[in-house]
Amino acid sequence: MIFAVRRMNNLIDSLLHAAQLECEEIIPRMKKVSINTVIIDFTKDLKISAAEKDIKISVQVPKKTISLNTDSSLLGVVLQNLCSNAIKVNTDGNGLGLYITSMVIDSLGGTIAVESTVGKGTTFTVKLPIKHKKVAKTKKKKK
Fold first, then answer.
1. What local confidence, expressed as pLDDT, does residue 97 receive?
2. More confident position, 60 or 112
3. To which H or E segment does residue 114 belong?
4. How many angstroms separate the CA atoms of 105 and 81, rounded?
5. Could you give the angle at the alpha carbon of 16 between the alpha carbons of 127 and 143, nearest 5°?
6. What domains are there in the chain, each with its CATH number?
7. Which residues pair with 115 in a beta bridge?
8. Highest mean pLDDT: which of 19-23, 88-92, 111-115?
9. 134/27 Cα distance (integer angstroms)
10. Which helix (H) or strand (E) holds 106?
């Protein structure tokens, strides 16, 4: 229960962080992160959520530790949005989650691509740089 509460608190913080990115008020908090650890920790909660819908989750993480400079909170937002979409098995929402995901990936210096086949499924491919290069942002014009 404590783990789930901490996870929800981190998620809320991450969502606020992502919303602030939209306003260009903050910069991602980059630090060296083990992607293996991020994925393993994230899937603990994901398995609970999936089990409620009789969905089994299988995660394979390389034995070799993969580290990169990224914002683990924002990466958590990306994982949460993509996986919750998969568990829901539909896209009848408002698209905000995927919009935030795209915005977060961009702020981390990465890319996201999607391939979808009706009746077969959807694959999202997220690529993140090992070393983050500061991306110059253009200021939005106020109307």
1. 73
2. 112
3. strand 111-117
4. 12
5. 95
6. 2-127 (3.30.565.10)
7. 123
8. 111-115
9. 9
10. helix 96-107
User: Which residue in 113, 112, 106, 42 sits closest to 72, CA to CA?
Assistant: 42
- At 121, is the secondary structure helix, strand, or coil? strand
Predicted pLDDT of residue 111: 95
SS3 at position 123: strand
Task: Please give the pLDDT value at position 95.
Answer: 62
Residue type, 114: V
Residue 8: CB atoms within 10 Å? 11
Go through 72-92 and write b for each residue having 16 or more CB atoms within 10 A of its CB, e for each that does not: bbbbbbbbbbbbebeeeeeee
DSSP string covering 37-85? HHHHHHHHHHHHHHHTTT--------SS--EEEE-HHHHHHHHHHHHHH
pLDDT score of 122:
79
CA torsion sign for 54, 11, 99, 130 is: negative
CA distance 120 to 49: 22
Here the tokens at position 15 are 């969502």
- DSSP letter at 1? -
